[in-house]
Amino acid sequence: MVNLMNSKKIDLKEPDLSKACNYIVKQFAAHSWWPSEQPGKAKREFELMKGSATALNIWCERWLDAGQCKKLEKELRS
């Protein structure tokens, strides 16, 4: 499961990977500005980093703000 150790620290595990990727893809589709900083670059990096929980943790810490991290955590718990 996901733990927010600080406001942006995410600890995705391999069992979370599919659900986390699905959530992120839905956010890309629903919001052209998501994430708020350089969404085009974030999408390209996501495509490269979505293959493992370790890489996706790095992507989340780089691209998501604290609120987006909390929403991702909530989605993983649902």
Q: Note the beta-strand portion.
A: under 5%
Low-confidence stretches: 1-6
Terminal CA distance reads 11 Å
Number of helices: 4
Please, what is the average pLDDT? 88
Structural class: mainly alpha
Instruction: Note the run of SSEs as H and E.
Output: HHHH
Assembly state (oligomeric): single chain
As for the number of domains, it is 1
Helix content: 55-70%
Number of strands: 0
Shape label: globular
Describe the protein in words.
It is a single chain. The protein is mostly helical and about 80 residues long. It has one domain. Helices cover about 60% and strands about 0% of the residues. Residues about 1-5 have low confidence and may be disordered.
List the helices and strands and how they pair.
Elements: H1 17-30, H2 39-49, H3 53-63, H4 66-77
What structural keywords apply?
78 residues; mainly alpha
Quick structural gist:
The chain is an all-alpha fold. It contains four helices and no strands.
